[in-house]
């Protein structure tokens, strides 16, 4: 019998069924697509004031799986229409509450919380039809259906987007029809959010309970798991055990990276065993149960290795969200191993249910990842500042003496962490100035600034990106001063501004460099004997001569710090004036770098704007 082709009526019927079955989910994807397309049309400057829309997108990303899960609960619990409406209204209220819980400003913690909640909500979808009545086979078949439907949806969406994008590109190039690049982003949003979701939902069986009697098992899934996934798991198991023996032999602490490897390996192994769960009791597959038992047993030593690696990082650097989640997953993994080794029931429902509970518990309350991590890092910061006499009686006293590179790096690292993840509310009481007002003032005048550098400057420190004590000699011998590019360079009284850049090539500066003007060309020449720069006209006549060594010394004196490398200098120190009888020049230096040898400065390069007043305007004001 020939397969029937999908008709327009069938497509319309499937679409209408999805709308009637998942009304809140469909509304969610349509609103999410609209908001995404709206944001695509905004400029970068406008996006700074778009946090309310971003909060809405974050909420909608959670609402979609949550609404789908609630629908499954109402379907499998045989609720009447009234109770179904009540469930959906309550779900809608919960989503609104989540949206309104956001603070005015978004921090990384908000994105992390939403990400973890997304994991919990997708796990909720996996077990929501089986909260009232559980059937092991039905539960596995249902999740197999979701997994395969997800892969098929991704395939269809990818092919559809690629095909339509190539078609648009062909129209653009063959018919000279200019297609705005944003059209491709709109297309991506529509296909990945609207089409992909509706196509996915259309493939979920109307009567989920019918899956309880389905005993089909894809042969390809068994082959893939048995001959690809499980051998890979075994290889990684051997690698980790060899690494464990290496640690014992050398008596050294495990590297932090091993934590992620052990966790990923454990999750992939459990996932592989879940994929072949229905056939584990078949006569020809007795090896699966033996493999599973030994796999769980062999995980115990690796869990110990994981725990030691986490402990070392926490002991040295405190708790962060990543480490907190690793600790939570380690505890969950230990409980899961114990459950599958010693429990008589060994229900696979355990995995999504307990994992979603762990996810929910880890993101709320004073015991959650964000509260614990913030408290840990602020505690470390308080200790470091107190030890270096920067925090005295609960108030910041800017550092007057040099502190160790290691301490400065750790303090800077914590400040950057707080800036990205939590903000400065919990440490504001340490400062005399209101930090948010300082940021707002700088933002209002359009000056580029980096918040951690301002906070650190209040402490008399700088943004040390991990410099170590043994780097001290290197940074003593090198400098790299820079400032942010500012569009409001004062040009009144000057006729022209041009860009000049000088750089080291084969350990010597360029000997000549043209300075292109609107009606003329000047020549910049480096005088090796005097370590100075000469500006000449086309006739070779010297117009001006200047050195940059004194300029660097002046910066160093006015901005003394614990290191001269990578210093972001206030723009007012980055000007150099050169007056002659005929011309007047001002150089605004954006960056200058070089070496210090025997107290002598060697400049390897600089990038600057050169402002020029021609002879008729060269008289001093």
Structural overview:
This protein is α+β, with helices and mostly antiparallel strands and 621 residues long. It has four domains: 8-213, no CATH class; 219-246 and 254-308 and 321-361, no CATH class; 369-458, no CATH class; 481-617, no CATH class. The protein is built from 19 helices and 13 strands. Strands 3, 4, 5, 10, 11, 12 and 13 form a seven-stranded mixed β-sheet that branches. Strands 6-7-8-9 form a four-stranded antiparallel β-sheet. Strands 1-2 form a two-stranded antiparallel ribbon. Strand 12 and strand 13 form a beta hairpin. Helix 12 (321-342) packs antiparallel against helix 13 (350-361).
* Span between termini: 95 Å
Task: Give the total of domains.
Answer: 4
Beta-strand residue percentage: 5-15%
| Mean pLDDT over the full residue set | 84
User: What is the helical fraction, as a range of percent?
Assistant: 55-70%
Rg for CA atoms? 32 Å
Q: Are there runs of 5+ residues with pLDDT below 50, and where?
A: 561-565
Query: Which geometry do the CA atoms define?
Result: globular
Describe the main β-sheet briefly: 7 strands, mixed
């Amino acid at each position: 019998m020939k397969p029937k082709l999908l008709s327009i009526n069938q497509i319309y019927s499937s679409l209408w069924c999805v709308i009637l079955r998942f009304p809140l989910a469909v509304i969610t994807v349509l609103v999410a697509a609209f908001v995404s397309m709206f944001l695509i049309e905004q400029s970068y400057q406008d996006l700074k004031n778009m946090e309310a829309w971003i909060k809405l997108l974050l909420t909608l990303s959670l609402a979609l799986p949550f609404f789908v899960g609630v629908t499954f609960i109402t379907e499998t619990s045989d609720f009447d229409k009234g109770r179904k409406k009540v469930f959906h209204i309550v779900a809608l209220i919960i989503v609104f509450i989540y949206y309104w819980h956001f603070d005015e400003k978004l921090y990384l913690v908000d994105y992390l919380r939403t990400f973890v909640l997304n994991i919990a909500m997708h796990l909720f979808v996996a077990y929501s039809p089986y909260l009232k009545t559980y059937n092991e086979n039905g539960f596995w078949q249902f999740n197999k259906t979701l997994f395969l439907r997800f892969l098929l949806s991704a395939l269809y969406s990818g092919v559809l987007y690629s095909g339509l994008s190539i078609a648009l590109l062909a129209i653009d190039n063959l018919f000279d029809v200019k297609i705005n690049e944003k059209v491709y982003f709109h297309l991506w949003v529509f296909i990945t959010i609207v089409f992909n979701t509706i196509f996915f939902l259309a493939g979920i069986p109307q009567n989920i309970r019918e899956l309880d009697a389905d005993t089909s098992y894809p042969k390809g899934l068994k082959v893939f798991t048995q001959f690809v996934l499980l051998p890979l798991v075994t290889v990684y198991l051997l690698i980790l055990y060899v690494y464990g023996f290496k640690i014992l032999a050398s008596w050294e602490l495990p590297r932090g990276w091993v934590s992620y490897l052990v966790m990923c390996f454990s999750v992939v192994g459990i996932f592989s065993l879940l994929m072949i769960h229905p056939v584990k009791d078949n006569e020809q597959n007795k090896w699966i149960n033996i493999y599973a038992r030994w796999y769980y047993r062999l995980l115990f030593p690796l869990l110990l290795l994981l725990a030691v690696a986490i402990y070392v990082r926490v002991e040295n650097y405190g708790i962060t969200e990543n480490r907190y989640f690793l600790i939570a997953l380690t505890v969950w993994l230990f409980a899961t191993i114990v459950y599958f080794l010693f429990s008589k029931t060994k229900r696979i429902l355990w995995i999504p249910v307990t994992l979603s509970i762990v996810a929910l518990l880890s993101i709320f309350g004073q015991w959650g990842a964000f509260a614990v991590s913030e408290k840990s890092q602020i505690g470390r910061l308080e200790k470091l500042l107190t030890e270096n006499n920067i925090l005295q009686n609960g108030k910041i006293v800017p550092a007057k003496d040099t502190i160790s590179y290691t301490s400065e790096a750790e303090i800077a690292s914590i400040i950057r962490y707080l800036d990205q993840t939590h903000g400065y509310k919990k440490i504001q009481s340490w400062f005399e100035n209101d930090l948010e007002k300082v940021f707002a003032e700088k933002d209002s005048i359009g000056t580029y600034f980096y918040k951690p550098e301002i906070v650190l400057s209040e402490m008399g420190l700088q943004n040390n990106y991990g410099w170590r004590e043994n780097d001290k000699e290197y940074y003593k011998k090198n400098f790299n001063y820079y400032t942010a590019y500012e569009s409001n360079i004062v040009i009144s009284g000057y006729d022209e501004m041009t860009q000049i850049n000088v750089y080291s090539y084969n350990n010597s500066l360029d000997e000549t460099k043209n300075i292109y003007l609107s009606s003329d060309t000047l020549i910049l020449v480096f005088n090796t004997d005097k370590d100075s720069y000469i500006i000449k006209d086309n006739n070779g006549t010297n117009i001006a001569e200047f050195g940059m060594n004194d300029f660097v010394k002046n910066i160093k004196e006015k901005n003394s710090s614990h290191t001269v490398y990578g210093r972001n200098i206030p723009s007012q120190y980055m000007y150099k004036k050169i007056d002659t009888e005929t011309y007047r020049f001002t150089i605004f230096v954006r960056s200058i770098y070089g070496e210090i040898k025997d107290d002598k400065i060697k400049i390897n390069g600089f990038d600057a704007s050169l402002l020029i007043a021609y002879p008729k305007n060269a008289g001093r004001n």
